[in-house]
Amino acid sequence: MRIESPELSRTAFEESLERHGLGALRRSVPTTLQINVGLRCDLACHHCHVEAGPNRTETMDLRTADRVLTLAEASPDLTTLDLTGGAPELQPQFRHLVRGGRALGLKIIDRCNLTSLFQPGQQDTAEFLAANEVRIVASLPCTTPQTVDSQRGRRVFERSIDALQMLGRLGYGQRGSALGLDLVYNPAADSLPGPQPVLEDRYRRELREEFGIEFDRLLTITNMPIKRFAHTLARDGKFESYLSLLVEHFNPATVAELMCRTLVSVSYDGRVFDCDFNQMLDLPIGGGGATTVWTLESFAEIAGRTISTASHCHGCTAGAGSSCGGALAVQGVQP
User: Fold this and answer.
1) Per-residue confidence (pLDDT) for residue 288, from 0 to 100
2) What single string gives the DSSP state of each residue in 146-159?
3) Which residues, other chains included, contact 172 with Cβ-Cβ below 8 Å and sequence gap of 6+?
4) Residue 266 to residues 21, 179, 211, 238, 294: CA-CA distances in angstroms?
5) How many domains does the chain have?
6) Pick from 172, 190, 159: nearest CA to 129
7) What is the pLDDT of residues 140-168, one digit of tens each?
8) Residue 159 is part of a domain; what is its CATH number?
């Protein structure tokens, strides 16, 4: 079974759109620039859609980072620079991109796995993030050590709590602070996330009472049936049933809010995609040939293009929806 072939499943998401009277997805002018800075990570999580890990060496070089910043400067509608990986802090160009984005007046997001803050050479990373008012979006898929460690590795929960407490001492997540801290929940199994407000209330209560941790928002993100998670599903004979679950819970109320409309995704080697998931499937932007930071003069050039879709797009539109900013709709499937 070829679980990652966009060509074999390209019509599935289009059919879902058509069934609800919705046309093809088209891009607006990008307001968020998301960069996958590199694939090295100190963890190798079971649900990781980029297959990051300690042995990955792919990373953005200085020439590409400078070109991305040049294009960002030429794209006046951009408001946010969203840095992801792998563990973005472990990539050589991470701080250069943070400083460059700040100089352009962009809001900076660091998608942090928390444990990376304790890696060799990262002793001052938390202070660097605070000094540059970087918003941290931190992975914490559960509030119990057993669930987190089974998904992400031995003692990851303990180290994550230590990191969150350290960030709290710097002001992250504290009332009145400019240092934003969001947590990310994703299901441990082949299911959809629960209601985001309910989970947020539970996280807030348990983390405050048990560990004295405060945060701003909880973001619920659906596990995407691609790469490492897709292989796990296939191994357990659950790939088809999980994809069916996503398709059956397609929610038309999420479509207008899909992040691919206003986000542009750039890979460590400078290729440009509609989103990070399409990047991992090497699904070209606009359904055409390769687009790179070297073929554009501004990210605004991709406005109006058709967004490339395949069956994995059902992961963003199932139930309350899913995006890098959490749920897209307050309720689940609409009547």
Assistant:
1) 65
2) HHHHHHH-TTHHHH
3) 130, 136, 179, 180, 181, 215
4) 31, 25, 37, 31, 12
5) 1
6) 172
7) 988 988 888 888 888 999 999 999 999 99
8) 3.20.20.70
